[in-house]
C-alpha cells in the first residue's frame, strides 16, 4: 500500500490537525467511561 | 479496518478478548479491571492506512505488574497487524497529567515484548498549548514503505520543534 501523506504548510496547520487528534481521543475516553459505568451498573443489578 | 480474528487471538491471548464494536475490543483482567483496546482510522499524517489505537481501562490505574495484561495487549496488536499491515499511532492520555509515565510504561512493555524486533517504534514529544503530549508510531519492519513512513512521521513532528511564529 502506498501511504500518501497529508501536506501541512506550517506549524499552525499541523497543530490544528494534532489538536483534532487529541480531541478525538478525549471523546473516545468519555464514551468508554460511560460504557464502563453502564456495564458496572448492570453487573451490580445482576 | 479489517477485523481481528478473535478465534485465533483467543487461542493465544492470556485474557479472553471480545469485540465491543467496530475496531473496539474488550477484556477483563484477573484483578477484575475492564479494558478496552480501540483502533480507529486516523488521517492526521496520512490520508489512508494509519490507525490510532488506545488502551483504556476502567479505573485509570496502571497495572505494571500484570504480565498477562501486557501479553494480551501485544497479542491484540499482533493480530491487528496480521490483518492490517499498516501504521499504528498511539498518543498517551493527558487528562491527568500522567502522560510521561504512560509513555515510559509503554516503551518498557514494548522493550520486554518478545517480538519487538519485528516492529519499528518511534516516540515524539509534542508540546501543544503548553501541554506535553507523547505520540508514538509503530510499523512493521518488513513494511516495504517503512523509510517513507518514518520520514513522514518525522516531518510531521518536526513542525513542533520549530518555534511558534
Walk me through what this model shows.
The complex is a heterodimer of chains A (about 45) and B (about 160). With about 45 residues, chain A is an all-alpha fold. In chain A, about 75% of the residues lie in helices and about 0% in strands. Chain A contains one helix and no strands. Chain A has one helix at about 10-45. The mean pLDDT of chain A is about 90. With about 160 residues, chain B is an alpha+beta fold. Chain B has four helices and seven strands; from the N terminus they run αββββαβαββα. Chain B has helices at about 5-10, 65-85, 100-110, 145-160, and strands at about 20, 25-30, 35-40, 50-55, 85-90, 120-130, 130-140. A seven-stranded mixed sheet of chain B has the order 1-2-3-4-5-7-6, sandwiched between helices. The chains are: A mainly alpha (about 45), B alpha+beta (about 160). The interface of A and B includes residues 10, 14, 18 and 40 of A.
Give the tags:
heterodimer, A: 46 residues, mainly alpha, 1 helix, 76% helix, B: 165 residues, alpha+beta, seven-stranded mixed beta sheet, 4 helices, 31% helix, globular
In short:
Chain A is an all-alpha fold and 46 residues long.
Amino acid at each position: 500500500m502506498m501511504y500518501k501523506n497529508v501536506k501541512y504548510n506550517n506549524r499552525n496547520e499541523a497543530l490544528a490537525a494534532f489538536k483534532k487528534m487529541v480531541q478525538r481521543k478525549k471523546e473516545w475516553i468519555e464514551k468508554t467511561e460511560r460504557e464502563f459505568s453502564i456495564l458496572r451498573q448492570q453487573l451490580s443489578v445482576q | 479496518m479489517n477485523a481481528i480474528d478473535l478465534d485465533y487471538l483467543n487461542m493465544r491471548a492470556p485474557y479472553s478478548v471480545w469485540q465491543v464494536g467496530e475496531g473496539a475490543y474488550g477484556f477483563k483482567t484477573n484483578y477484575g479491571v475492564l479494558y478496552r483496546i480501540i483502533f480507529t482510522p486516523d488521517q492526521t499524517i496520512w490520508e489512508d492506512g494509519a490507525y490510532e489505537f488506545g488502551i483504556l481501562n476502567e479505573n485509570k490505574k496502571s497495572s505494571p505488574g500484570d504480565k498477562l495484561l501486557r501479553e494480551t495487549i501485544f497479542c491484540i496488536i499482533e493480530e491487528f497487524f496480521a490483518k492490517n499491515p499498516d501504521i499504528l499511532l498511539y498518543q498517551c492520555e493527558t487528562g491527568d497529567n500522567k502522560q510521561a509515565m504512560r509513555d515510559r510504561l509503554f516503551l518498557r512493555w514494548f522493550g520486554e515484548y518478545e517480538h519487538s524486533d519485528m516492529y519499528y517504534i518511534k516516540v515524539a514529544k509534542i508540546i501543544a498549548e503548553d501541554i506535553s503530549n507523547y505520540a508514538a508510531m509503530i510499523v512493521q519492519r518488513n513494511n516495504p514503505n517503512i523509510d517513507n513512513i518514518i520520514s513522514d512521521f518525522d516531518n510531521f513532528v518536526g513542525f513542533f520543534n520549530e518555534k511558534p511564529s
